[in-house]
Amino acid sequence: MLSMRISPGRRPAPWTTWAGTARCQPRVLATPGSTDALRALLHEAAERGEGVRAVGAGHSFTGAATTSGTMVSLAGLGRRTAPDGRTGRSEDVEEVEEVVPLAGGGALVTVRAGIGLRALNLTLARHGLALANLGDIDRQTLAGALGTGTHGTGARHTGLAAQVRGVRLMTAAGEVVDTSADTHGALFEAARLGLGAVGIVLAVTLRTVPAFRLTAREAPQPLDEVLERLDGPGNLVDAHDHFELYWFPHTRRTLTKRNDRAEPLDADGAPGRARDPSGPGTRTVETARRLWSTGRRWVDDELLSNGLFWATNELATLAPGLTPRINAVASRALAPRTYTAASHEVFVSARRVRFAEMEYAVPRADVVEVLREVDRWVEASGVHVPFPVEVRFAAADDVWLSTAHGRETAYVAVHQYVRLPRDRYFAGAEAIFREAQGRPHWGKLHTLDRDGLAALYPRLDDFCAVRDAYDPGRLFANAYTTRLFG
Ligand SMILES: Cc1cc2nc3c(=O)[nH]c(=O)nc-3n(C[C@H](O)[C@H](O)[C@H](O)COP(=O)(O)OP(=O)(O)OC[C@H]3O[C@@H](n4cnc5c(N)ncnc54)[C@H](O)[C@@H]3O)c2cc1C
């Protein structure tokens, strides 16, 4: 008997993204428990002439995962948990398929594609490993995050897809294919970042690094001072391992985040464990410090970043004209802070205030001018924006559809609270991003289609040729992929 859970009743509930920015009514919502069950789903959908979309955690803002046909979640496929040596709990710690140590440190780690990033981080930590860079939340699945080109920040670091060394996927024909740069190289390129348009990703081999700690320094800084120091000698971006900034529109204030590598973790890879060089007395002091720091982080992360932030957005919704003053107060409420913890704890924050987002990757050399243009546009337009603009950086990479393909990149993200109008703001910002040859994040709102993308991605035709070869009947297509790839 095939192992599979299919949504009960005639039709599953309507599906929506985390932000409510895209919706659909799938005919079937299935969580296959084996590759045979998945293959059977593909065959059945093909016979019915309807589409199949894999879904992750629904954290894209676009209709990347939407379908009126079969929606497939890989949440359970291949999932096996192991007890955590420290806590005894097993729910977040998964068995990995393979760990191959690398000569220079770190390892190639093969995990199931439907694993959540949180579980992935905890699992890697258990092996004394980590991902070199991460985005700012861990709610996504690995396959979902890879499929849209999810990235973090750091001028010497790439996005997640460039850390992939192998992808196992099921093609439209139901074949399971192991791909890498050396085996089925073109399919590998299209599978590691391709919105699930060439197949359902089953497992991923990641290049990991030895687990490390990060020291985070967060501080309010005037916008003009930050813009002056973004490039040139000793600039903020190159001086830190992971630099990012949040600018509050209608103000001249930013919050900068500078994350730098501290010492590596202990040999047992325990995340966030304080070192104890001088015995039990030191341990007590360290523990007290950590408790204080945890309390402080709770105030900053939960109350300021989420609770108070929700309140400021609600107030801006009720009284939009107050937005500049609200932003001025909110940006002053953020006190400087410094803390050190396991890398994934520093990279990742909770995001409880719901928002819509557009993010474009622009050439790094143009980011200051782009920000000045957005500032001028916001002031001239009269729109009200209580959400900060986020600016991040990445090294150039060679992934075919990476937003950082072949160029040093700066990411500029505009957000709007879900209860506020966003169309004018996003259209104004998008015109500025496009003028700078910006490439839209595949999971965030934008209006580009294949014609617009062709000029931005030198390997787009290669990607589409792989799609033609492996999914000629367009089993994996939906409205979004048809708009992007034809
Ligand atoms: C609060 C918030 C914070 C975010 N922070 C960041 C950030 O810091 N950096 C960043 O770059 N992005 C960020 N994003 C965007 C997010 O990382 C991406 O949209 C990501 O794709 C979401 O992953 P998911 O698991 O929810 O996938 P989904 O949105 O469910 O799916 C994304 C795509 O992956 C495909 N897919 C999913 N599983 C498979 C599979 N097994 N095989 C083939 N295709 C598959 C889907 O079909 C779809 O095309 C953020 C989004 C939110 C809501």
From TrEMBL:
Regions that span the bilayer: none
Domain FAD-binding PCMH-type positions: 22-211
Molecular-function GO terms, alphabetical: D-arabinono-1,4-lactone oxidase activity; FAD binding; L-gulono-1,4-lactone dehydrogenase activity
Source organism: Sanguibacter keddieii (strain ATCC 51767 / DSM 10542 / NCFB 3025 / ST-74)
Chain residue ranges for the region called Disordered: 258-285
A Pfam family annotated for this UniProt entry: FAD_binding_4
Keyword Oxidoreductase: yes
Protein name: FAD-linked oxidoreductase
Record keyword Nucleotide-binding present: no
UniProt entry keywords in alphabetical sequence: Oxidoreductase
Top-level taxon: Bacteria
One Gene Ontology cellular component annotation held by this UniProt entry: membrane
InterPro entries tied to this protein: ALO_C, FAD-bd_PCMH, FAD-bd_PCMH-like_sf, FAD-bd_PCMH_sub1, FAD-bd_PCMH_sub2, FAD_lactone_oxidase-like, Oxid_FAD_bind_N, Vanillyl_alc_oxidase_C-sub2
